[in-house]
């Protein structure tokens, strides 16, 4: 619970920091995509096409008794309506999800269409992995030449990442790298190999032209 993000208001600095991270890689998002922390029910409804999202109200402290959700109508201005994230997750996991979902948004807004799941989920997982690396291993050589990683998102709400939070981040990085699923796991490993060899920009250009990752010879 020490870094859990419980409501949308608390998540805004992290969300803006990750958008800055994208901008630092020359991947600015052209649309202000709304972001909401929601309950499990709202995620399930969104998956089946529900447009009325139950927004968690801003809360003080950890008082959860007697809370009520507030219906919020989302207006579709383009193909990317909003990013929804389950509330109550650790800050680094929330950020990893936001980094992943923002990449989906960036691909849509930049005209990438009809990508197979391995390619789209794989490259989105790479951005999630890169952001986590920048948070947990700030002294390591990052593939993102940006100072956004050292933004205000680098500390938890209590100021400064604890050893527990760093260990959590290392675990989330390990989870991405060793995911067994074809799209998220296999896709990530193929995408990561391409980005390591050719760089993110060249890999994205190749995906735009071919719909596939550039070939990495072993």
Please give a structural write-up:
InterPro entries: DA1-like, DA1-like_dom. GO terms for molecular function: ubiquitin binding. It comes from Gossypium australe. This is Protein DA1-related 2-like protein. This protein has about 220 residues and is mainly alpha-helical. It has helices spanning about 10-25, 40-45, 90-110, 115-135, 165-175, 180-200, 200-210; strands at about 35-40, 50-55, 70-75, 85. The protein has one domain (about 10-210). It contains seven helices and four strands; from the N terminus they run H-E-H-E-E-E-H-H-H-H-H. The chain has a two-stranded parallel ribbon. It has a two-stranded antiparallel sheet with strand order 2-3. The radius of gyration is 17 Å and the shape is globular. The termini are far apart.
Q: What is the topology?
A:
Layout: H1 8-24, E1 35-38, H2 40-47, E2 52-55, E3 70-73, E4 83-86, H3 91-109, H4 117-136, H5 163-177, H6 182-198, H7 200-210
Parallel strand pairs: 1-4
Antiparallel strand pairs: 2-3
Helix pairs in contact: 1-3, 3-4, 3-5, 4-5, 4-6, 6-7
Biased composition (Low complexity): 140-157
GO molecular function: ubiquitin binding
Domain Protein DA1-like: 52-210
């Amino acid at each position: 619970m020490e870094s859990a993000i419980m409501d949308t208001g608390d998540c805004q600095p992290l969300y803006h920091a990750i958008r800055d991270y994208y901008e630092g890689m020359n991947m600015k998002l052209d649309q202000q995509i709304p972001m909401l922390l929601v309950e499990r029910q709202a995620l399930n409804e969104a998956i089946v096409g529900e447009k009325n999202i139950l927004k968690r109200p801003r809360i003080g402290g950890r008082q959860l008794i007697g809370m009520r959700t507030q219906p919020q109508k989302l207006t579709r201005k383009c193909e990317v309506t909003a990013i929804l994230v389950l509330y109550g997750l650790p800050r680094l996991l929330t950020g990893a999800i936001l980094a992943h979902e923002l990449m989906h948004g960036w691909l849509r807004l930049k005209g990438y269409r009809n990508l197979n799941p391995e390619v789209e989920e794989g490259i989105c997982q790479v951005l999630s992995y890169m952001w986590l690396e920048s948070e947990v291993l700030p002294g390591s050589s990052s593939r993102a030449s940006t100072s956004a990683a050292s933004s205000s998102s680098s500390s938890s709400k209590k100021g400064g990442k604890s050893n527990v939070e760093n260990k959590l981040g290392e675990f989330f990085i390990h989870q991405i790298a060793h995911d067994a699923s074809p799209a998220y796991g296999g896709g990530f490993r193929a995408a990561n190999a391409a980005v390591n060899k050719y760089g993110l920009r060249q890999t994205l250009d190749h995906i735009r032209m071919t719909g596939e990752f550039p070939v990495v010879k072993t």
